[in-house]
Amino acid sequence: QVQLVESGGGLVQAGGSLRLSCAASGRTFSMYAMGWFRQAPGKEREFVAAISWSGRSTYYADSVKGRFTISRDNAKNTVSLQMNSLKPEDTAVYYCATDRVVYGNVPGFTPHYWGQGTQVTVSS
Q1: DSSP assignment, residue 37?
Q2: Closest CA relative to residue 118, chosen from 2, 1, 19, 43
Q3: pLDDT per residue as tens digits for the range 13-32
Q4: Beta carbons within 8 Å of 54's beta carbon, 6+ residues apart
Q5: Could you tell me the CA-to-CA distances from 87 to 71, 97, 109 in Å, in that order?
Q6: Alpha-carbon dihedral 95, 65, 9, 42, rounded to 10 degrees
Q7: 3-state secondary structure at position 90
Q8: Which of 31, 61, 92, 124 is deepest in the core (most CB within 10 A)?
């Protein structure tokens, strides 16, 4: 069992930046790819970014490519999402998740354990 706790959400103006963090419990964190997803009101939850268990591979949704950066620190059991040039359409609850399998490939990321989410609101 893995527990995930997100933090760092808030209210920011368009063009601004936020950094989300996800702290994971469990000794197996470093064996799993990690991902970020988001869900806007009235919309389906969607993929944002994923990072391999080693941190060497990353994968992004087209909508955030070039603006968001995912990273991880296996020594601290954390994964982060740096969000720059934020747009109103980035407004959503952001969730981190573990991959379903150990040592998985990030293009095939399949979420398994979820955090509780953190709200990001971008004002125009």
Answers
A1: E
A2: 19
A3: 999 999 999 999 987 899 99
A4: none
A5: 21, 23, 25
A6: -60
A7: helix
A8: 92
Rounded to an integer, what distance in angstroms lies between the CA atom of residue 80 and that of residue 83? 10
Give, as one character, the DSSP assignment of residue 67.
T
The side-by-side arrangement of strands in the sheet containing 68-73 is: 4-7, 18-24, 78-83, 68-73
Q: Measured between alpha carbons, how far is 79 from 55 in angstroms, rounded to an integer?
A: 10
Residue 55: half-sphere exposure toward Cβ, Cα within 13 Å: 14
CA nearest neighbour of 59 among 14, 104, 89, 90: 104
Which distant-in-sequence residues (6+ apart) come within 8 Å of 2 by Cβ? 24, 25, 26, 28, 29, 32, 98, 113
Pairwise CA distance, residues 12 & 4, whole Å: 24
Nearest to 90 by CA among 110, 117, 116, 119: 119
